[in-house]
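Need Kinesin light chain's 3D structure for a figure. Predict it.
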Amino acid sequence: MLRRNFGGCTVREWHWPGVYSVQKSPDEWPNIEALIDNNYRNMLKRDIELKGCEAAVEDYSSRVAFCIPILVDASIAYDVSKKQTPEMVEQGKPVGVNLAGKLLNEDGMPPRQCIVIRAEREEEIGNASAVLVESLRCRAEALAERLGLEHSDTLKASSRLATVLARRGDYAEAEPLQRRVLASYEARHGDEDLEILMEVYHLAEMLLDAGKLAEAETLSRRLLKGRERKLGVLHVLTLESVNILGLVLMWEGKLREAEPLFKRALEGRAAQLGANHADTLTSVNNLGLLLQNQGKLEEAEPLYRRDLAGCETQLGVMHPDTLTSVNNLALLLEKQGKLVEAEPLCRRALEGRETQLGVNHPATLQSVNNLAVLLEKQGRLEEAEAFYRRALAESEAQLGVMHPETMIFVNNLAGLLQNQGKLEEAEPLYRRALEGRESQLGAHHPDTLQSVNNLGLLLKTQAKLEDAEPLCRRALGGFEAQLGANHPSTLTAVHNLALLLRKQGKLEEAEPLCRRALEGRDTQLGAHHLATLDSVFNLAKLLDAKGGPLAEAEELYLRELKGMEELHGPDHKETRTSRRNLERFRRKHATG
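Structure prediction for Kinesin light chain:
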């Protein structure tokens, strides 16, 4: 893998016009300082004298913010420590000496690598990402033919292929391949050695991304137990295992179980790697995400800000990981209702990703979508629609009309149209998202079930109550089977079915569902979470409609009001709505 460092630089005083690269992947560098030293040692010294250390290091950090892997024929690649470029030969410069007579490597300094790529035609350089899957598949097949399916080199190549396939969303091919690799290692070793545990990790990560959470949990627990026994509780790989188990539990809705794991991973990584190491910052971010999912938005905010500050310091303000941190903080502020503060962060993430990754990169399209969501919440629906349509069109072009990421944008555009009252336009998009997810992810994937739920809610809004009910029941049954009875998504489906039944006048059937949703959200999310307060209001309104118990209904209306006051303050529009609801109830029943 060749790292493009100089962006096609043609400065002749070095070794040769061309692209200056290294034959190392990002994870082979011990830290960003080593990479900057390799690429810019002499220039950095000069700029430190001119600008000062801090400003110079920040400037150079942004220059190594991302990796573009490229494939070239060896004949046009010149490792100048071993092979002279034609111009070096012409000017009599030996290997390791540039055209200005400066040494690439000096005594007492870390050795550096510089590979100069010189291509006369565009087709001589290929983007390795574009042909990576086919290259890995050919490699695995060739090794299998030469060495056999069970040879360790073949298994490693197959595992690498499976990992790349999974990261591109091709779980149908990736999962059976990874299962075969793991089974082969288990048959060869018969014990939980470190090679087996690494393949367990790969499969657990794959199943987590594919939404197969129950099996992912089983494998993650096996992984953690095995690494604790083999490596000890504080080894970095053990802490990696703690982190993935925390992620699985979080997405299963087991938030209370996940929290001590995320805290353990964070404390361990900070102690072993340092407070600003990339893995430590990942743990900071994960704990913030957990707290956000628990509704503890004020506790999450300083963690997100710490993660962002650490990434800016360690990686630079334009590094893709830094931009992800910008994006995460913006989303949190949006959930807090701090829409004005969130918008410049959303735009910074989008503009940075457009610059660093390109306008059509999947992460860029996520930022387009996130800005659209924010604008929609601000009521700027026409602006939001333009961004939603941009994200959808570019995703269709880059990833295909059936890709899971494309389905996210289809779903979100449908939601905006529903919000605009364009129900007839929204319905075919919701149906397209559902059909696409059923086809690509399966009928029982959580994203598919979310589409089932969304279509049911749209039909409810259209007063097609009989059509909506089987969809709401399917969503609830699916979430219960896939995620468990107390997962937040399951409880949302319980809540939605209760609302539908109430609208149908089936109050007796709706009441136990209202109570179940409230009790579950109280337990899983906490008494002050916005979703919990929504369930408080729903039960109060149901009891109001039934005519009792009125004392309980009043108590619930009052609880919702106090919760809104704590979350938003006394003058927020949601708080004012809650106050009016209580006052209306009291006037109706003459209880206050």
